[in-house]
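Hi R.,

As promised, here are both runs. First protein below:
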Amino acid sequence: MFKNSSLALGHLLVFVTILIWSVAFVGNKILLFYITPIEVMLYRFALAYVILLLIHPKIKTFKSIKDEAYFFLIGFLGVFLYFLLENFALKYTQATNVGLYMGAIPLFTAIIAHFMLKDEKLNANIIIGFTLAIAGMALILLDGKGFNLRLKGDILAIAAAATFALYSTILKLAPKNYHFIVITRKSFFYAVILMLLYHFTSQKPLHLQALLLPKVYGNIIFLGLFASSLAFLFYKKGVEIIGSIKSTNYIYLVPLLTAITGIIVLNEKITVKMIIGGVLILLGLYISQRRPKPL
């Protein structure tokens, strides 16, 4: 009985995490109507950093330049660069499109990990799955509706997915003896520094008045508190209970949940090509995660 309850909790935590991350694309899209992409990132991750500091207030003292360089790298790739690409993608294309491309992150990760990690090798299923996913993304890219502007956003979204895959691979090389919240918090810290530098060099004004709007501060709180803080904790705990393979399977829900939210909240439109493309991406993800049959 207790085992079943624990497994149910694990599945619930992972599902809630995926739901939060799927809805986050739409939350980001709403904020971009009022503030700039870099402002969205800055407010979101400054808040997330403070929340993680409150949750795990233990400050890890400086150990080595190598460790700090690693935290800077994952902060640059997984937070600053990824969300910069994602936010600009959302500025030019639908949240639904971005959600579809994010579904291919595990496939990008498998390809990158093959070249970077000794224990992560390609197999026939991964190659077939990746080929199907690429075909699906191409189909969505070539959808003619609002082609020029949307194409720019779609390409940025694919670049964001590839960047996050690189980040996910490098994350496996994390230094030992650090709590995962400390690693996340440190990456957020360096990312916020980079965001501040980006903002000041761009010389664009802050839209502080927009922060008084319920839609703006509500979505910032949602993104900072839930999508960037609690969701990480939920997912980590869920993976500990049900394992990484079962947890990864929930990624199949990201495109569907994002599309549903985008249709309801933003009145986004779904085309036949998008549906077929999304199915190909998910089919590719499914095939890639199946264990190859022994020869």
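And here is the second one, sequence first, then its structure tokens:
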Amino acid sequence: MSDKVAVVAIGRNEGDRLVRALAALAAQNLSPIVYVDSNSTDTSVEEARKIGAHVIELDMSVPFTAARARNAGWQAALEIAPDTEFIQFLDGDCELVDGWIDAALAAFAAEPDLAVACGRRRERFPDASRWNRMIDREWNSPIGEAIACGGDALMRRAAVEAVGGYREDLIAGEEPEMCFRMREKGWRIRRIDAEMTLHDADLTEFGQWWKRATRAGHAFAEGAFIHGKSPERFWVRQARRSLTWGALIPIVAILAALVITSWALLLLLIYPVQVLRLRFQQGQPWEEAIFLTLAKFAEAKGAFRFHHRRLTGQRKTLIEYK
């Protein structure tokens, strides 16, 4: 069945990361490979053409999103190879592990209603920074049926076509949103016990991590706004949690201190208590317990950003962290 798999990779100025990603694809003899470039100023396009990839250079006069790039990729892949049954989506900073395609195809063969198979995404350099370490642990989600996947996944063509692909106006969270629409139509998502990709996050600064958390908050808020009234209440809990911890609690504490009593500031002790709870009740490492709590402030910022632009009619712009 591997001859029924097309690969869609997207990227911009990924440099050596893209070279590694493309080399891994070429070594596994996967075809067709479609590379969608979003205005790179390095040699990304040339490197993709060297391995025989079909290159699409997006018109950047149209607002860019990763969702738009992925849609352009899979639609081009089906024109090139009309018999394609599965599409491997890949970010340009990820290297596909040899053997992943066979493992994922076995899962599809066993489950006719399986729309998406994903596996273990690992950080290439987890010890390069605390941010990389935390992301590597974040990727290690539970094996079994899931509600969503990330940017790297093998998808059944029929399921992608059934929902019309990715929603192109989303600047973040486009994979979970599409998975939600797939599940509404009766398809299933599964994470299997197999190595899938090596990812190079290259997060070395606090500011990068903060922007990434801000983007997550934007995605939660927008997802809840779009699908929050569904029976599943898609991302409503995540959006409320971001706003409660990142905005409501400190605002209430400060206002109460100004209007009623300064003792109200003791409410802010809930944050160190939350750190302790994550550390000792959930077994999170200290750095993760601290920064997961701190991330709620960045997520609240992202949520406010979404709602402000929605209410004022401003165009959404990407929140990029590298």
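A quick note on the second one: Residues 11 and 165 are 18 Å apart (CA to CA). Let me know what you think.

Best,
J.
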